[in-house]
C-alpha cells in the first residue's frame, strides 16, 4: 500500500511538468497508446502533439503545436467539442481493437475518434500533418483534411464541388475555449475566387477581392504577408484550394494563418525558430468590414467620415448618414438611359457612359467573362456598354474582364495600389476628360515656376512653356500605362513605376491621385522642398505633373529600390553585409544633417523609415518622400493642430501623442531605423516570446545586460565590427529616448559616426 501511494504521488508530480519535460514518442500503435505525460513528436522535432489545458478552464484537450516556438499556439485540436476533465489523469489517445484512432477518458469511454478502421499507426509529420496509416503505410486519415482554426504551409483551404467536401477554418469560441466559434474562413465558388470570413457560416464579415493568379487583389502588399500563395483550381476535378508555402524562407522558418475568436485573420511568422511575430492581419480598420458603406458607397479609412457615395449617387437617407450609419448606402441621382427603356438589348452608346474610379477593392458579386481576350480592355468596355444590365466593369491584370450586374457593395478605396473600376452613369453625370501633360524640369528655378503655374493658372504656364521640355502622357508609355510589371514599389502616397524618357534615361514615376493619402498640399510641399534641396543623400526630382485628380512626380531612377526590400526580403537580406549597413546608417545621417543644418531652410522630414530610404546602384542611401516634411525656423518646435501624420512605430512620443515635432522627431525615427538595420527586425511587428517587449525595449534590455551584440542580425554571422555595431546600437538607443531633450542632435550623431569618439561623451559635450 505504501508503494502504491508513493507511485501515485510521483505520477501526480510528473503530470504537472510542462510538455518539454514529458517523455517523447514518435508514433502511436495498437500496443503503444499516447498517455498523459507523453508527447507525440515529429521526426525532425518540429511539431508536437499532446494533452493541454487552456488557462482559466477546467477542460483538457489533445492538440498540436510547434515544439520549440513560443508563445505556444495550438494549431489543431482533436476533441474541440468534447473536452476531458482536467482532473482525468487516465485519458489516452489509442488505436482500438477495431483499428480506429480514438481518444478515451479515464473510464475508457470514447470522446473523439477518426471513424476509420484497420489503422496500424499514427504519427505527426514535420509539416504539422497528423496522419493515421494502415499496415501498408497508406494514409487513412489526416488532420490537414480536418482543419481547425489554423492553416499551415502546404495545407489546403477550399472545396471539392463533386464530393461536397469543404475545408474551412473555424475560429475558437474564445481564447480559452477551442470549441467552434462564429467565424469561418473559406473560398467562394466565384470565378475567380475570393477568400471570405463569414459570421455564422453565411453572413460576410470580410473578403479578399478576386484572385489574379498571384494574389488577392483586395489585399495590398499581400506578397509580404503570405509566402508563395497559390490557388489550385481544377475545373475538371471540381476542386479549388488555396495554399501557401515557405520555400523561399529557408528551413529554419515557420508560419501559420489563424482566424481568431474575434474574427481577425492573421499571419504569424517565426524567422528565428524561437518566437512568433505578426506578419499581417485582416480586417485592419472599419473599411475592411464587409459592406461598411452600403450599396454604391465607398469606404476610405484615412478620411472622416469614412464613407462617401460614388459620383452620381447620393445617400439613401441623409438622416442616417448624419448619424454615421452608412449601411443604408446610396442611390442613383440620375436614371440611366437603360432604366428609361425596357428593351434590354438596346445599345446605350453615347447616352450612358462610365466613370473611372481608381485604387479600389472592387465590389462583390463580380462576373467573369472568359470569352473576351485577356489583353483587350476595349472589348470589356463594349461588352458592358451594350448590356443594359451591366452596372460596372473592370479590366484586371492577370484576370481579364470582370462585370457587375448586381448593386455594387463592399467598395474600399486604398491609399495606393488597388484597381480601376468603371461605373455606369447617365451621360449628364460624366465629365469630359483632357489629356495629361508631364513636365520635365531643367532647373530648380524652372521647377518652382512651373509648380506655381500649374497650381494657380494654366495661362501663366503657357506663357513660359518654351522654357521647359514638354512630354505628353504618350511619351510616358514606357511605363506601359502604369502596368503592374513596371511597378517598383508602393509608398504611403502611391505606387512608383519604372519608365524611360525618349532620350533613353531611366526614371521613376510616383503616381498620386485623389484616392492617395497625399493631397494637393502635400504634393506642392514635396515639389517646393525638392526644388531647393540638393544633396547626394537625397533623391533628386526631375519633373512633375498636375491634371485634375492625377498627380505625378518624376525622380531619378534608383535601381536597388528601397531599404525595406533588402531588410525584410529573404532573398536579398544577405546582400546587406555590415559594411553596407554601416554605410547606409552614415549616409542617412549625412542626409538628415543637410536637412536640419546645412540647407538654406531647416526641414523636418517626419516620415523617416526603411521604405523611404532608396538605394542607388552602389547601395548608397538617399532619403525620399518629402510629402509630409515641414520647414521650421531656428530651433523652434511646432505643434500640428490639424492631424498627426507619419508611420506608426517611427513617430516620437511627443509627436504621436501631442502633435509636437522638431528636429528631435527625426532623430527618434533615425534611432528606430538604426536598430532595425542592426537587427533586421521590424519595430512594428517585433514580439519577444516570453515578455511583452517591443524591439526598442528589447534592445535596451540587451544593452543594460551587456549583451548588445545579441541584437545583430544572425545572417551576418561573425562578419561585423563589434565596435561599430555597439556604437550604432548606443546611438540608436540614445535617439529613441522618450524625452526629446535627452536625444542627441543629428550633428552629434554625424560626428560620432565619423570618428572614434565615445557616443555618450560626445552627446554630453554637444548638448
From TrEMBL:
Span of the signal peptide: 1-23
CC terms in the record's Gene Ontology section: plasma membrane
Transmembrane domains' residue ranges: 438-458
Protein kinase domain mapped to chain residues: 482-761
Origin superkingdom: Eukaryota
Location relative to the cell: Cell membrane
Biological process annotations from GO: innate immune response; recognition of pollen
Domain Apple residues, every copy: 338-426
Membrane topology annotation: Single-pass type I membrane protein
Catalytic activity as recorded in UniProt: L-threonyl-[protein] + ATP = O-phospho-L-threonyl-[protein] + ADP + H(+); L-seryl-[protein] + ATP = O-phospho-L-seryl-[protein] + ADP + H(+)
Coiled-coil residue spans: none
InterPro entries to which the protein is assigned, alphabetical: Bulb-type_lectin_dom, Bulb-type_lectin_dom_sf, Kinase-like_dom_sf, Pan_app, Prot_kinase_dom, S_locus_glycoprot_dom, Ser-Thr/Tyr_kinase_cat_dom, Ser/Thr_kinase_AS
Enzyme Commission identifier(s): 2.7.11.1
MF terms in GO: ATP binding; carbohydrate binding; protein serine/threonine kinase activity
Keyword Transmembrane: yes
Family from the record: Belongs to the protein kinase superfamily. Ser/Thr protein kinase family.
Protein name: Receptor-like serine/threonine-protein kinase
Phylogenetic classification of the source organism: Eukaryota, Viridiplantae, Streptophyta, Embryophyta, Tracheophyta
Amino acid at each position: 500500500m505504501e508503494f502504491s501511494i508513493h507511485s501515485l504521488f510521483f505520477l501526480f508530480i510528473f503530470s504537472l511538468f510542462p510538455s518539454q519535460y514529458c517523455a517523447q514518442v514518435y508514433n502511436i500503435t495498437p500496443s503503444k497508446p499516447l498517455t498523459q505525460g507523453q508527447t507525440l513528436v515529429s521526426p525532425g522535432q518540429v511539431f508536437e502533439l499532446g494533452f493541454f489545458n487552456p488557462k482559466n478552464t477546467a477542460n483538457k484537450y489533445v492538440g498540436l503545436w510547434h515544439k520549440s516556438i513560443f508563445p505556444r499556439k495550438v494549431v489543431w485540436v482533436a476533441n474541440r467539442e468534447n473536452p476531458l476533465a482536467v482532473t482525468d489523469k487516465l485519458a489516452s489517445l489509442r488505436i482500438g481493437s477495431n483499428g480506429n484512432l480514438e481518444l478515451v477518458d479515464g473510464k475508457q469511454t470514447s470522446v473523439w475518434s477518426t471513424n476509420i478502421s484497420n489503422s496500424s499507426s499514427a504519427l505527426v509529420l514535420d509539416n504539422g500533418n497528423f496522419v493515421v496509416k494502415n499496415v501498408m503505410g497508406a494514409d487513412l486519415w489526416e488532420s490537414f483534411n480536418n482543419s481547425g482554426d489554423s492553416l499551415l504551409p502546404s495545407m489546403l483551404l477550399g472545396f471539392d464541388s463533386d464530393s461536397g467536401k469543404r475545408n474551412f477554418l473555424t475560429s475558437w469560441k474564445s481564447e480559452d475555449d477551442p470549441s467552434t466559434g462564429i467565424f469561418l474562413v473559406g473560398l467562394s465558388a466565384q470565378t475567380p475566387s475570393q477568400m471570405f470570413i463569414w459570421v455564422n457560416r453565411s453572413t460576410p464579415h470580410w473578403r479578399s477581392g478576386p484572385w489574379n493568379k498571384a494574389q488577392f487583389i483586395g489585399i495590398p502588399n499581400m506578397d509580404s504577408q503570405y509566402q508563395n500563395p497559390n490557388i489550385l483550381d481544377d475545373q475538371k476535378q471540381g476542386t479549388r484550394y488555396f495554399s501557401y508555402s515557405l520555400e523561399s524562407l529557408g528551413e529554419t522558418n515557420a508560419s501559420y494563418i489563424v482566424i481568431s475568436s474575434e474574427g481577425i485573420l492573421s499571419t504569424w511568422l517565426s524567422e528565428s525558430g524561437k518566437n512568433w511575430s505578426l506578419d499581417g492581419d485582416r480586417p485592419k480598420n472599419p473599411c475592411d468590414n464587409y459592406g461598411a458603406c452600403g450599396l454604391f458607397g465607398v469606404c476610405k479609412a484615412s478620411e472622416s467620415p469614412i464613407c462617401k457615395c460614388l459620383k452620381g449617387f447620393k445617400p439613401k437617407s441623409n438622416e442616417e448618414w448624419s448619424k454615421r450609419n452608412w449601411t443604408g448606402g446610396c442611390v442613383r441621382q440620375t436614371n440611366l438611359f437603360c432604366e428609361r427603356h425596357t428593351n434590354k438589348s438596346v445599345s446605350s452608346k453615347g447616352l450612358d457612359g462610365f466613370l473611372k474610379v481608381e485604387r479600389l477593392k472592387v465590389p462583390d458579386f463580380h462576373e467573369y467573362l472568359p470569352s473576351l481576350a485577356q489583353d483587350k480592355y476595349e472589348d470589356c468596355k463594349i461588352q458592358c456598354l451594350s448590356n443594359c444590365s451591366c452596372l460596372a466593369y473592370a479590366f484586371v491584370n492577370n484576370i481579364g474582364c470582370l462585370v457587375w450586374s448586381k448593386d455594387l457593395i463592399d467598395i474600399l478605396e486604398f491609399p495606393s495600389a488597388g484597381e480601376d473600376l468603371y461605373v455606369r452613369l447617365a451621360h449628364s453625370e460624366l465629365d469630359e476628360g483632357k489629356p495629361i501633360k508631364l513636365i520635365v524640369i531643367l532647373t530648380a528655378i524652372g521647377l518652382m515656376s512651373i509648380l506655381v503655374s500649374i497650381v494657380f493658372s494654366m495661362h501663366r504656364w503657357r506663357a513660359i512653356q518654351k522654357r521647359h521640355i514638354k512630354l505628353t502622357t504618350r511619351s510616358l508609355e514606357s511605363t506601359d500605362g502604369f502596368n503592374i510589371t513596371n511597378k517598383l514599389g508602393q509608398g504611403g502616397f502611391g505606387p512608383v513605376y519604372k519608365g524611360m524618357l525618349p532620350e533613353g534615361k531611366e526614371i521613376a514615376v510616383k503616381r498620386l491621385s485623389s484616392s492617395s493619402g497625399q493631397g494637393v498640399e502635400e504634393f506642392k510641399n514635396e515639389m517646393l522642398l525638392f526644388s531647393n534641396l540638393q544633396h547626394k543623400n537625397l533623391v533628386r526630382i526631375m519633373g512633375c505633373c498636375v491634371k485634375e485628380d492625377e498627380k505625378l512626380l518624376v525622380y531619378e531612377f534608383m535601381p536597388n529600390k528601397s531599404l525595406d526590400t533588402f531588410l525584410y526580403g529573404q532573398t536579398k537580406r544577405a546582400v546587406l553585409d555590415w559594411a553596407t549597413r554601416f554605410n547606409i546608417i552614415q549616409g542617412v545621417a549625412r542626409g538628415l544633417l543637410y536637412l536640419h543644418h546645412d540647407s538654406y531652410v531647416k526641414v523636418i522630414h517626419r516620415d523617416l523609415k526603411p521604405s523611404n530610404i532608396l538605394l542607388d546602384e552602389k547601395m548608397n542611401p538617399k532619403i525620399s518622400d518629402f510629402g509630409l516634411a515641414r520647414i521650421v525656423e531656428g530651433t523652434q518646435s511646432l505643434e500640428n493642430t490639424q492631424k498627426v501624420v507619419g508611420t506608426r512605430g517611427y513617430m516620437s512620443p511627443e509627436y504621436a501623442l501631442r502633435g509636437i515635432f522638431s528636429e528631435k522627431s527625426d532623430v527618434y525615427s533615425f534611432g528606430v531605423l538604426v536598430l532595425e538595420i542592426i537587427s533586421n527586425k521590424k519595430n512594428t511587428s517585433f514580439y519577444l516570446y516570453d515578455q511583452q517587449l517591443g524591439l526598442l525595449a528589447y534592445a535596451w534590455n540587451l544593452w543594460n545586460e551587456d549583451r548588445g551584440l545579441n541584437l545583430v542580425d544572425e545572417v551576418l554571422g561573425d562578419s561585423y565590427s563589434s565596435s561599430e555595431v555597439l556604437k550604432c546600437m548606443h546611438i540608436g538607443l540614445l535617439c529613441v529616448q522618450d524625452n526629446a531633450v535627452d536625444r542627441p542632435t543629428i550633428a552629434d550623431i554625424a560626428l560620432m559616426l565619423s570618428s572614434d569618439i565615445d557616443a555618450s561623451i560626445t552627446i554630453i559635450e554637444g548638448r
